[in-house]
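Morning run. Coffee first, then this:
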Amino acid sequence: MSYDDIQTACVIRYPYLWVREAQQGETEGRKERPVAVGVRVSRPGGDLLLLFAITTKQPEPARFACEIPPIEKRRAGLDPDLRLWVILDEYNTDVVGQSFYLEPDPPIGRFSKAFFLPLVRAFITRRKNLSGINRTR
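And here it is:
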């Protein structure tokens, strides 16, 4: 397998660390979960990934999140019978090739551009007010 398949809008499994967990002193994600690759940025020392958690827990109304439609769940390789949300008001960053957490496994699926790119654009406009966890060494 290759890290090359991990691109923007794909869904991979990753031990996501929630901001609230990091604020309590935790340093490791509690479980592997599906995450959406928000963007992959080329860098000489290893490509930077911006990762958004996917969850079954309905977010509070004040959160910046989006429920995933059934067709997108199927495209992304997610369970179409579960209600799922992409959480966009927090994120993890990691570096391909330097990560303790990324594996060169193929993505489980991919969101369509029509669904995902508007979410990334909305994230970019709000990014200064959002919280991220840097998972690089």
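The first strand starts at residue 10 and ends at 14. Good start to the day.
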